[in-house]
């Protein structure tokens, strides 16, 4: 099997006023293409920091991250943006839609940034798959939290990414909506065969993945198969 | 508490308030300017008039009044002035001047400023002339040189730097030259029909005031059609003429203040929205609604005061510049000093207006409930139904009304002004929305995502797009309108400088000289374009009513000034190419003395006199009463140099009256002009010549100077708009950062984000500039059609330049401020809390 994400001896230190704060140290793991992975841990344990490093949103202090066989640490800010655009999808706790664009336009943004043409049909199809065919021309402000997260799901899958990062995707949603969004996430993921990395402290959600990595105080304390592991 | 709360936001609040600084500065500058002006006029009125009483006759003085004129005052001087040509012997050049033949000790106050100083007195002792300094410069003349005026030679005894009470501009076409009055008769310049005016200058003895004397003789002066002036009337008149101007500047400054205040209101609206959370928490902690309101009120008041004081300081500085620009228009020395009254008024006005605007969004603070800690919905709390808001709107309108009423001394004008401001703002807002809608609808956004995103950014929540388009747009509209109108006036005038239009006017030609002069013109290879006889007369009676205040009855519609001015009239039996009959018909020549004399009158003049065809007018033709009936009204296009007349007579009436001729020709070059003028003066020394090209360049100069002042003030509204833009860019910085970080996360390159930002400002600048320009074109068109009666042709290049500069400035401001936005690392996106 192909390794899509290779993290080796990763560390991150923040230089605060006078003293240094080590948030992550000695993190190593690899993720095979097409699998699902959950990163769990208490608040402040470094989950978001790790995700940011894996997705090339931040630079590490030590170690390396290889995404789709590309060494991220060596790339410039713009080159990393290009890598993200080509291979990575994102889902955020707070949805992160552009509120000046309609649902449809939001879904089209990553493809537009690539300069692709004739993307409307694909975006409409994805919005249909998340059950928002009737709301394509609505602005984020006109949508509920669950609906906004579904738009962001459609956006994440619009570029057919190789790997999808989700940071607390249901953190801002009520239980019922969480259930529905999670269902859609795993559904779309299975159909597209995308690699999925979820950061969550929701046990139930974590149990639906192949593998669960436990994080505490910036180090890996456990690495166990999840409920979906065969 | 208020101070503590403002700690983190002080700089941001200061930024909001900075939008009003320029408006206040403009107001303080004009206030100070006009207060200083008033003081200068009061201080200098005496030296401006130069005497206690001046009586002016614009023509021959009737023998009945002469004894009176010769008996008033303790000392008197007499001056006869008229246009004539001067000939500089050494440089062999000629030029139109205003001859002032003076007798007596005038001026009694102030002096003729001359170089050498003694020349002001000594020129009266012999055949000497004082020549205006611009002429001396222009012709390289020196004291001691000879000049010829009429048939007489004079030695230049000094350079005239300044004469009492005359402003510079009116003298540029015909600069003054003083000579002693006793040589006038010999010069051969005073021939029948010459347009000579006579000034009688009086100095009273210390016991009688000019006002007392005037009260006694006023009715007789009026009856004789003489004009008169005392130091007091001069104060009023000068004050009034500058009142209009400073009123105009004040209103422009006021509009800048209004624009700034709208910016403040809009910024505070956004500020309060962001503050809902903290305010709701305060409310949870037991702070009462009105207390929360007062906390923010004090913050804004404090910073408003700082802004106003800063504006006043800036205004006081700017005030130093106005007299420099305006000095050519001022018939006196303008002084500059700090006017506390102006500063106080400016600060008070700025504070009032901006606070009223700021209160509009601020009153919503009272409606924020502790519940807002759980739910941020603001829409539900901001209600138009708030009676306090309505009160504020009413207060605002009445303070605009009060201010304009105070400035214009008239409720009607104030209502019109307030109405127009509302209308203009409404129009701008509507135009702004329409432009945005049209752009959204018809712009080919499908071409490019970056374009679409840039445009969509204008609609981000809490955007100030419409406010920005209004503030910048109004500034552009101002400047555009001024420019177009000025351009129209100049191009209208300069039609004369091109094609086969006449550009030289010869006047004061005697009947006996007219054929000889026409022959000389043709011999010089120049065309005689027109050769028109002119008879001067005065209106004696209109429909049986005579001049005089005593006889004015209630409901009497004939304005008194109709009788005051001297009319120059011609006679002919056909229309000129620029005329059209719009009512009645042209009657042929009068055959017998018993026939009715049907005259033709220019329609605008008829409107001013409140007369129509069929009305009876009696003219006084140099003592002879001549009854006539208005036979027709003519429309005259004044757009060509030529002889246009308010009144024309038919042939057969005026042929034997005292008259002079005007001859019009066209010269092709300055050399030709100079050569022709010399040969005319050599043979006909009493004839005066105006080269229209010279007049045009003078007018051009005047217009551009006035235009500069107005543009300077209008610039305030544009800059205010830009300050509002800066504030708005900074306010929305956080939002912009989020947007660009998200795009970066989704894989946008730096270049793409920069392009989106640049496009956003490009759209904003274009919309504002286009809205402003459209309004400017509309306004200029209306002005052209209804005020100047002339078609508007907008030249494309200045429009493009104005448009591009606004767009460029907008983009520069926007992009300078978004550098920080662009340099955010994408990681921020994960840290953002809701
Ligand atoms: N820019 C920063 N500077 C200093 N410390 C930071 C910064 N960002 C995050 N941290 C610290 O890193 C630690 C891990 O944060 P984070 O990765 O967000 O944890 P989690 O997502 O697991 O809750 C926290 O203690 C946080 O305070
Ligand atoms: Mg986190």
Give a written overview of the molecule.
With 230 residues, chain A is an alpha/beta fold. Helix content of chain A is 33%, strand content 29%. Chain A is built from 7 helices and 10 strands. In chain A, the strands form 2 sheets. Chain A has a 6-stranded mixed sheet. A 4-stranded antiparallel sheet of chain A has the order 2-1-4-5, with helices on one face. In chain A, β7 (163-167), α6 and β8 (195-199) form a beta-alpha-beta unit. The longest helix of chain A has 18 residues, at 175-192. The two termini of chain A are 15 Å apart. The relative contact order of chain A is 0.19. Residues 376-383 and 549-555 of chain B have low confidence and may be disordered. In chain B, a hairpin with a 2-residue loop joins β17 and β18 (624-636). Chain B has 25 helices and 21 strands. In chain B, α12 (340-362) packs antiparallel against α13 and α14 (411-442) crosses α22 (750-788). Chains A and B meet through α1, α2 and α3 of A and α15, α21, α22 and α25 of B. Adenosine-5'-diphosphate binds at residues 14, 16, 21, 23, 41, 43-49 of chain A.
Topology summary:
The complex is a heterodimer of chains A (230) and B (834).
Chain A: E1 3-15, E2 20-32, E3 36-40, H1 47-54, E4 62-67, E5 70-71, H2 77-87, E6 88-91, H3 103-114, H4 120-129, H5 145-158, E7 163-167, H6 175-192, E8 195-199, H7 203-206, E9 211-216, E10 219-225
Parallel strand pairs in A: 3-8, 3-9, 6-7, 7-8
Antiparallel strand pairs in A: 1-2, 1-4, 4-5, 9-10
Chain B: H1 2-6, H2 10-49, E1 53-57, H3 66-69, E2 75-88, E3 93-103, E4 113-115, H4 119-122, E5 128-132, H5 133-138, E6 146-149, E7 152-162, E8 176-180, H6 184-187, E9 197-203, H7 210-223, E10 227-230, H8 231-274, H9 276-284, H10 289-319, H11 322-326, H12 340-362, H13 387-408, H14 411-442, H15 449-456, H16 465-494, E11 504-510, H17 514-523, E12 530-542, E13 545-546, E14 567-571, E15 579-584, E16 598-602, H18 603-609, E17 616-621, E18 624-636, E19 647-649, E20 660-665, H19 670-683, E21 688-691, H20 692-731, H21 733-745, H22 750-788, H23 796-817, H24 819-822, H25 828-831
Parallel strand pairs in B: 3-8, 5-7, 14-19, 16-18
Antiparallel strand pairs in B: 1-9, 1-10, 2-3, 2-6, 2-9, 4-7, 5-8, 6-7, 11-20, 11-21, 12-13, 12-14, 12-17, 12-20, 15-18, 16-19, 17-18
Helix pairs in contact in B: 2-8, 2-10, 2-12, 2-20, 8-12, 8-16, 8-20, 10-12, 12-13, 13-14, 14-16, 14-22, 15-22, 16-20, 16-22, 20-23, 22-23
The complex binds adenosine-5'-diphosphate and magnesium ion.
Magnesium ion is lined by residues 47-48 of chain A.
């Amino acid at each position: 099997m192909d390794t899509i994400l290779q993290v080796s001896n990763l560390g991150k230190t923040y230089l605060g006023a006078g003293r240094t704060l080590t948030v992550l140290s000695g993190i190593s793991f690899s993720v095979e293409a097409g699998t699902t992975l959950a990163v769990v841990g208490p608040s402040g344990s470094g989950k978001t920091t790790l995700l940011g490093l894996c997705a090339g949103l931040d630079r590490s202090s030590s170690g390396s991250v290889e995404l789709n066989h590309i060494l991220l640490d060596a790339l410039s800010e713009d080159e990393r943006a290009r890598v993200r655009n080509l291979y990575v999808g994102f889902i955020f706790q707070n949805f992160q839609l552009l509120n000046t664009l309609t649902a449809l336009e939001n879904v089209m943004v990553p493809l537009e940034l690539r300069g692709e043409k004739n993307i409307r049909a694909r975006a409409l199809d994805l919005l249909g798959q998340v059950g928002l065919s009737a709301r394509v021309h609505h602005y984020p402000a006109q949508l509920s939290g669950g609906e906004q997260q579904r738009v962001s799901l459609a956006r994440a899958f619009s570029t057919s990414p190789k790997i999808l990062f989700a940071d607390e995707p249901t953190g801002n949603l009520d239980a019922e909506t969480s259930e529905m969004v999670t269902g859609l996430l795993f559904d779309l993921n299975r159909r597209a065969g995308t690699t999925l990395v979820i950061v969550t402290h929701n046990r139930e959600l974590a149990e639906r993945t192949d593998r669960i990595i436990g994080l505490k105080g910036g180090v890996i304390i456990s690495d166990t198969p999840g409920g979906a592991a065969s | 508490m208020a101070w503590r709360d403002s700690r983190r936001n002080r700089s941001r609040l200061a930024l909001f308030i900075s939008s009003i600084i320029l408006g206040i500065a403009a107001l303080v500058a004009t206030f100070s300017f006009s207060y200083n002006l008033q003081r200068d006029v009061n201080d200098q009125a005496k030296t401006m008039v130069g005497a206690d009483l001046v009586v002016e006759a614009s023509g021959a003085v009737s023998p009945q009044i002469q004894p009176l004129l010769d008996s008033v005052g303790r000392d008197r001087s007499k001056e006869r002035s008229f246009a004539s040509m001067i000939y500089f012997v050494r440089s062999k050049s000629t030029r139109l001047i205003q001859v002032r033949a003076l007798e007596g000790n005038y001026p009694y106050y102030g002096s003729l400023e001359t170089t050498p100083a003694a020349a002001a007195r000594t020129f009266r002792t012999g055949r000497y002339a004082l020549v205006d300094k611009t002429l001396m410069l222009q012709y390289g003349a020196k004291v001691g040189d000879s000049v010829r005026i009429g048939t007489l030679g004079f030695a230049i005894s000094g350079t005239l730097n300044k004469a009492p009470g005359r402003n510079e501009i009116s003298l540029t076409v015909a600069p003054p030259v003083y000579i002693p009055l006793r040589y006038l008769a010999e010069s051969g310049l005073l021939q029948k029909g010459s347009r000579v005016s006579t000034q009688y200058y009086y100095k009273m003895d210390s016991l009688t005031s000019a006002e007392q004397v005037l009260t006694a003789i006023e009715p007789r002066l009026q009856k004789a059609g003489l004009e008169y002036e005392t130091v007091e009337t001069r104060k009023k008149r000068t004050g009034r003429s500058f009142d209009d101007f400073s009123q105009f500047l004040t209103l422009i400054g006021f509009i800048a203040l209004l624009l700034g205040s709208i910016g403040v209101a809009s910024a505070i609206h956004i500020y309060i929205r962001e503050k809902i959370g903290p305010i709701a928490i305060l409310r949870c902690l037991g702070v009462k609604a009105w207390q929360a309101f007062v906390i923010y009120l004090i913050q804004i008041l404090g910073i408003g005061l700082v802004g106003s004081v800063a504006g006043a300081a800036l205004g006081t500085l700017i005030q130093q510049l106005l007299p420099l620009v305006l000095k050519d228009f001022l018939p006196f020395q303008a002084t500059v000093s700090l006017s506390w009254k102006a500063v106080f008024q400016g600060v008070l006005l700025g504070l009032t207006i901006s606070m009223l605007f700021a209160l509009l969004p601020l009153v919503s603070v009272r409606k924020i409930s502790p519940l807002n800690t759980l739910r941020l919905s603001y829409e539900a709390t901001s209600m138009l139904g708030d009676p306090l808001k309505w009160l504020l709107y009413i207060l605002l309108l009445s303070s605009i009304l009060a201010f304009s009423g105070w400035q214009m001394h008239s409720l009607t004008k104030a209502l019109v002004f307030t109405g127009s401001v509302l209308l203009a703002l409404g129009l701008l807002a509507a135009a702004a929305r329409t432009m945005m809608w049209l752009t959204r609808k018809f712009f080919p956004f499908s071409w490019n995502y970056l374009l679409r995103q840039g445009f969509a950014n204008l609609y981000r929540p809490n955007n100030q797009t419409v406010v920005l388009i209004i503030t910048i747009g109004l500034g552009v509209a101002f400047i555009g309108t001024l420019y177009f109108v000025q351009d129209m006036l100049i191009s209208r005038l300069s039609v004369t400088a091109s094609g086969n239009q006449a550009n030289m006017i010869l006047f004061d030609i005697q009947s006996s000289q007219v054929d000889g002069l026409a022959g000389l013109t043709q011999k010089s290879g120049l065309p005689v374009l027109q050769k028109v006889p002119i008879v001067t007369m005065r209106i004696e009676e209109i429909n049986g009513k005579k001049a005089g205040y005593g006889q004015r009855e209630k409901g009497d519609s004939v304005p008194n000034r109709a009788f005051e001015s001297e009319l120059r009239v011609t006679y002919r039996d056909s229309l000129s190419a620029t005329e059209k009959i719009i009512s009645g018909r042209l009657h042929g020549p009068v055959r017998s003395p018993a026939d009715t004399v049907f005259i033709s009158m220019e329609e605008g003049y008829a409107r001013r006199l409140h007369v129509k065809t069929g009305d009876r007018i009696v003219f006084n033709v140099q003592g002879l009463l001549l009854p006539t009936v208005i036979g027709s009204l003519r429309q005259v296009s004044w757009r060509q140099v030529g002889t246009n007349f308010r009144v024309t007579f038919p042939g057969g009436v005026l042929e034997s009256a005292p008259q002079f001729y005007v001859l019009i020709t066209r010269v092709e070059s300055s050399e030709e002009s100079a050569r022709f003028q010399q040969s005319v003066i050599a043979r006909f020394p009493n004839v005066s010549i105006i080269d229209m090209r010279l007049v045009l360049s003078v007018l051009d100069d005047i217009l551009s100077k006035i235009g500069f002042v107005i543009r300077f003030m209008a610039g305030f509204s544009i800059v205010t708009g830009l300050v509002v833009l800066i504030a708005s860019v900074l306010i929305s910085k956080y939002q912009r950062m989020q947007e660009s970080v998200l795009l970066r996360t989704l894989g946008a390159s730096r270049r793409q984000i920069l392009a989106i930002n640049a496009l956003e400002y490009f759209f904003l600048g274009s919309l504002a500039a286009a809205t402003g320009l459209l309004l400017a074109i509309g306004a200029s068109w209306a002005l052209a059609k209804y005020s100047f009666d002339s078609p508007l042709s907008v030249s494309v290049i200045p429009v493009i330049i104005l448009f591009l500069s606004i767009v460029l400035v907008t983009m520069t401001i926007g992009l300078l401020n978004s550098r920080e936005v662009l340099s955010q690392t994408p990681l921020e996106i994960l840290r953002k809390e809701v």
